[in-house]
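fyi for ur records
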Amino acid sequence: MLLPTQSISLDELSVAVPAFIRYPTLRKLAERIQHETLNAVTSPSRHNAQNASYSTRVLDSLYQTPIADASVLVAITHERHPKLLLTLRAAHMNSHAGEVSCVGGKHDEGDGNNVVTALREACEETALPPNKVQLLGQLPIQTSKSGLSVRPIVALIAPDLVLVPELGEISRIFWADFEALLTQPTVEYAVEYTMQDQTATMLTPSWQVDGETVWGLTGRVIASLLETGFDRQLEWYYRVQKTRL
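which gave:
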């Protein structure tokens, strides 16, 4: 489903205010991410800071952030035991085929900002309505293996939304237990790859979620989320184990 960019309308009600978040884990996450989001933009707001609402200042900061090549939506359910939305990319895709990802994709010229890119792509991939998303803020830029700059946009969504995978892009929708990500150790994952007639094994951290391996860009986004929100320090490495002819 293609979503016209002009149909995505954001206002101060699109931002989740920490004081109105009932659950302590999510409230802490919102406070930390919004603190980083507001401090990341050094240029003056288009609104007078004294007169603008807190929500408007968060939204302004997101709008003023330079546009990345792509954006992903880090969507977390707003409930006592929150879950993180994940998808498995279709096996026929040109990039990241068969890998776990957050919903998202490349910036279109008409998007205007990273938030709209993330919301539009999320709707196209899973039928997630943009007006059912409450923004928390953003995480630092990540770089994909193809060299694209990727901006993670963090948001809360209702736990009872009916999501439908767009099978041209993703093969399944599944969920990670958020509190498990906070506490469980990562597992070293071995990836085989070939370069210049040599095959090597690369070792990297991962999580095992619902039978899928979460690693790579998505793993780094989650690690960044946990560090920003809860000071969980995870070493994220890519180490070549061996090379053979």
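The mean pLDDT is 90. thats all i got for now
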